[in-house]
Amino acid sequence: MKALVVYYSRSGNTKAVAELIAGAASADLESLVEVGVNRKGLLGYLRSGRGAMSKKKSEIETPSKNPADYDVVFVGTPVWGWNLAPAVRSYLGQTDFGSTPIALFCTMSSSGQEKTFASMRDEASNVNVVGEMAVEAAAIKNPVELQKKVADWVKGFGEVGGAAG
Q1: Count of CB atoms situated within 10 Å of the CB of 71
Q2: What is the pLDDT of residue 157?
Q3: What's the pLDDT tens digit per position in 51-71?
Q4: Which residue has the higher pLDDT, 39 or 14?
Q5: 3-155 CATH
Q6: Which end of the chain is more exposed for a tag (fewer CB within 10 A), N or C?
Q7: Residues with Cβ < 8 Å from 117, sequence gap 6 or more?
Q8: Stated pTM of the model
Q9: Mean pLDDT across the stretch 130-135?
């Protein structure tokens, strides 16, 4: 299976999970980079939540990897105000995945995955979503358990189309 992991991370939690998925799937890794947006510090945190809740998109640098070149693409976002990050909203809305299925993952404090995954599916309309995984912040603090959760989830994608999640 040739896999790609695409993610956006402000604090590093989504990046940590993306790296575990990439390791478990022997996947290529691509971070989404916003253009002209400062998400650092308290003001950046507030801007992030407001942008997510108002379903804004942000300008992102053109990704270097073509999803159509892969058997599966994992797409990850932090949950901000029960919504996905604007950079991920942009990526899902503007990317042609061809026939490549996608698997969605998110990181969150404690809730919001249902609404976030629904919004991700809406943005990636006409794309086959083959799995979803939510990771709470508390799980990130337990790396052994998290690594097992990720490895078990990724195993289900050995035969792409065999739904995991």
Answers
A1: 17
A2: 81
A3: 777 788 889 999 999 999 999
A4: 14
A5: 3.40.50.360
A6: N
A7: 104, 106, 132, 134
A8: 0.89
A9: 95
